[in-house]
From TrEMBL:
It comes from the Bacteria. The lineage of its organism: Bacteria, Bacillati, Bacillota, Bacilli, Lactobacillales. It comes from Bombilactobacillus thymidiniphilus. This is GTP cyclohydrolase 1 type 2 homolog. Transmembrane segments: none annotated. It holds the Pfam family DUF34_NIF3. InterPro entries: DUF34/NIF3, DUF34/NIF3_sf.
Length: 263
């Protein structure tokens, strides 16, 4: 098979038309006409992930976060980002990213996160300008306090820390809304959906004040919980390979690309 065949399947599952405005999702680097025999799935494309791909003789990296968020101003290889591009080109590794379109896909990022929390009766909320749902909401199998839910999420995702935004930590909650990544701006949609707790990452300081003023409890587990993408995308591509008779090996990155250490 060639890269374009894999991309065709990805874009049927998560159409580019569903990405958020200004999101540089899609083809990042390489040549989709080249044969693909080894695929690596990853949350981020960082130098250590590229080295892992080289070591594993990978032809195609399927990432959640785009490789190129900002255009290169030059091709000076003293710049680590440029060096990473050069290493990918030197080893004929194609990179493709599916970002906010995977967040909206069904199944997609927010389905996987909701399932990881064992939510029941999962439904959609928080729609984009085209009416495509971004978030997921559901109910806990057993109502618990806001604080205990936060502690449970910390264990579930093996986190060393998270942020809890709540004036009512002992309140018993059941209806949960979740949007992976940086989705604090969607908290009005969570209020409209009448969730008891909203889970999302990268909440800004002033937005947190607005959430508290609105009486909303929010758990911010960070951005890296989206690493769930690695195993889920691997399983989906393996299913496609079996169904289509592709001779394809799919591995998920073993690199931890979380940039934060809590001390």
């Amino acid at each position: 098979m060639i890269g374009q065949q894999l991309v065709d399947k990805i874009e049927h599952w998560a159409p580019l038309a569903h990405k958020m405005p200004h999101d540089p999702t899609g083809m990042q680097l390489g040549d989709l006409r080249r044969p693909v025999k080894h695929v690596l799935t990853t949350l981020d494309v960082r130098p250590e992930v590229v080295q892992e791909a080289i070591n594993q003789q990978v032809d195609f990296i399927f990432a959640h976060h785009p490789l190129v968020f900002r255009p290169a101003r030059n091709l000076d290889l003293a710049n680590p980002q440029n060096k990473m591009y050069a290493d990918l080109l030197k080893h004929n590794i194609t990179v493709y990213a599916a970002h906010t379109n995977i967040d909206k896909a069904n199944p997609g990022m927010n389905d996987w996160l909701a399932q990881a929390l064992n939510l029941r009766d999962i439904k959609s909320f928080a729609y984009d300008q085209n009416g495509v749902a971004l978030g997921r909401l559901g109910t806990l199998t057993k109502p618990i306090s806001v604080l205990k839910l936060a502690q449970s999420i910390k264990r579930q995702f093996a986190l060393t820390g998270l942020r809890l935004i709540s004036n009512q930590q002992q309140a018993i909650v059941e209806k949960i809304g979740i949007i992976g990544g940086d989705a604090g701006k969607f908290y009005p949609a969570a209020l409209k959906a009448q969730v008891d707790v909203f889970i999302t990452g990268d909440v800004y300081y002033h937005t947190a004040h607005d959430m508290l003023a609105a009486g909303l409890s929010v758990i911010d587990p960070g951005h890296h919980i989206e690493a769930i993408f690695k195993q889920q995308a691997q399983a989906i591509i393996e299913h496609w390979a079996k169904a289509n008779g592709w001779e394809l090996t799919v591995i998920s990155s073993q690199c931890n690309t979380d940039p934060f250490t809590y001390i």
